[in-house]
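Standup notes
- DV: blocked on the single-chain target, sequence here:
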Amino acid sequence: MKIMIIGCGRQGSELAQALDKGDYTISVVDNDPVAFERLGHAFKGQTIHGNGLDREVLISAGIEHADGLAALTASDDLNIVVARLASQVFRVPRVVARVHDPRKAEIYRRLGVPTVTPVALGTQRFAELLTYFPLHTVKRLGTGEVTIVESDIPPFLVGRQVNELTIPGEIMVMAISRAGITEMPTPGTLFRDGDRLYLAVTSAATERLKMLMG
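- DV (later): unblocked, structure below
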């Protein structure tokens, strides 16, 4: 699987190093050759010095055969343009752009450009840490609109059915770990003491889940 990273700043270099440890072919593009020093001597991927908007640079980096591209330069506008170019012109299957301005991110997300907004994600994480509740975040999906969380079953829910903790389109019990075995429940599955729940919840329904979990 070939992944391209445009921008070798702190986040771009960390992503490149992380993916380089897996079974991926990585190419990193940056207009500052000194930036590649962040990758370290162990980096096995390809580095290309040039402008991420330059068609020839992108082609030399292998965009015509890329399976994914992350635009992580310091410029929101550049990231968006590169992402749209990769998606619409070169037909790269998976494309994501980092956009610091949440307002811009929402606009481009509606235009079909997947975006990651560090400010929004950071704010959400700060809020979680400051208003702790017994729901452990396992994974965020997409750009954080849906989160997978895990939690021990509250005593007052023991003996009740899964469908009592389900809100279509907002909250869903995905799996239950019980006596060392994890299974997907049915709507009529009864909660038991000691259950560990795995739930999918939308960001808008997080407060509602807190209430349901007591």
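- Follow-up: The helical segments are 10-20, 55-60, 76-89, 102-110, 118-130, 206-212.
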